[in-house]
Amino acid sequence: MRNVTNLALTGSLAAAMLIATTTAHADREGWPSNFTVGTASQGGTFYVYGSGWANLIADELGDISGAGEVTGGPTQNLALVHSGELAFGLTTMGPATDAVNGESPLAPGVPMDNVCALFPMYETPFSITALSNSGITSISDIPDGARIGFGPAASTSDVYFPAFLEELGVNFDRRNGGWNDLAGQLQDGLLDVIAFAAGIPIPAVSQLEVQTNVNIVEFTEEEQATIIENFPVSEFWIPASTYTTLEEDARAVSMWNFAISRCDLPEDFVYEVTRITMENNDKMRNIHRSAETSIPENIVHNTVLPFHPGAARWYQENGYEIDEALIK
């Protein structure tokens, strides 16, 4: 009798597991088998953050693979997600505003309406780095015609930092490239300055500190006020603990970043991606410490992109309000 009972129990458990498995697969109908996250150049925070986030999502979902992809950064990520070439991407709110309004330099006149917001990432500070032996300790020290690296073409840094410096009266020779490449050029004397827009600590700057002596050049109070008045940025202080070079907090300006997705991705899939990200901030901080601000309270910093309905559902279920007009 005991054997019959055991067999019955075993059969019941097997049936229950089969039903659960079938239900799980049914719930994932239409989900992609893999996904790619558009990041930026190697040596920048987007690449580290995006690649790590892709791995986290793939690990948590179990049977879906994910990876980060090197791109030209926020502006290109918006275009690649909108066109459907990428499922996810990372962007900055300045380029996102341009894309929604049809003012992207990559697609002039084309409003990008297949781009939805997922979650807040962190603020991107705009900062300047020079070699210590250059004597450049302030923006006013930058020599006329200085060779300045602004990151990949059409990146957030490349779109905004030249305009910042022009507004401040700096005359320069504009150079582009990946952050690691530009850092190498700075160290070799081929550049005078690198104008970074990336989450901190910037891997390329941290590596430079190990290899040589550098100056982190901050904005003066007046320069900061001028840039805030004329551009979509906010006041920011780079904590002294960010780099060994800094002895005190450095004045800067910043712009918020958000993760984005195609708006036509399955709602349940995006719900799960959002849930995993928002409920595992400890794992996100292990990817990059800038993720300490990748928390649901910061969704208020997006007033431009519509939220994907899957993401919006998670926020609303967990007590975070989103204007219905801002849901796709």
From TrEMBL:
Keywords: Signal. SUPFAM superfamilies: Periplasmic binding protein-like II. The keyword Transport does not apply. InterPro entries: TRAP_TAXI (IPR011852). It comes from the Bacteria. Residues 1-26 form the signal peptide. The keyword Signal applies. Pfam families: NMT1_3. This is TAXI family TRAP transporter solute-binding subunit. It comes from Billgrantia zhangzhouensis.
